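Chapter summary example.
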Amino acid sequence: VDIAREAADIILLEKSLMVLEEGVIEGRRTFANMLKYIKMTASSNFGNVFSVLVASAFLPFLPMLPLHLLIQNLLYDVSQVAIPFDNVDDEQIQKPQRWNPADLGRFMIFFGPISSIFDILTFCLMWWVFHANTPETQTLFQSGWFVVGLLSQTLIVHMIRTRRVPFIQSCASWPLMIMTVIVMIVGIALPFSPLASYLQLQALPLSYFPWLVAILAGYMTLTQLVKGFYSRRYGWQ
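The structure predicted for these 237 residues follows.
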């Protein structure tokens, strides 16, 4: 018996092969959730780097302080803690998936610039509509982009986690939904909180928020359209 155990690849603790099926399903679910995080983080970082480069070339001040980037990344990472518990679409479990580095690079090229488009729209909004275009008003500019950047990063999780229409055809797990809502509330509240002065943020005018909703809606719509094209052309993992 001991020799058989040493030679065996798998040792069943129950007299049922169903345990193998459950193990395969759990492994595929874990792999799918891992890919979600890698793709979302890689494409988001790619877009942020491009946005900062564009902004730095034209603005007379930093578009966002290093402190803001650290807080934004911290809150984003907190929201992603729930990804291991996320739901996975049936088609991602029905057949095995493979790690494909080429697909990751292609994914970044397709989805990274989408966030940059709406970052640049946010720059234009803060510069021309809210007149945050001098070093004296840079805190307002940085606060506006901080909120847009954090909320778009957090919401994009729900767009990329499935090839289907999010919130309608495929919903995230409750832990991920709750963490998304909490982080979005915290991100909006920070510029209005007593911590704002320490974080070098400032309260945003109420007229900013209809623009915020429009930017986020446009971002999600364009991402869904690109996702449809991408999944038809290259498939979806």
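To summarize the output: The chain has one domain: 41-234.
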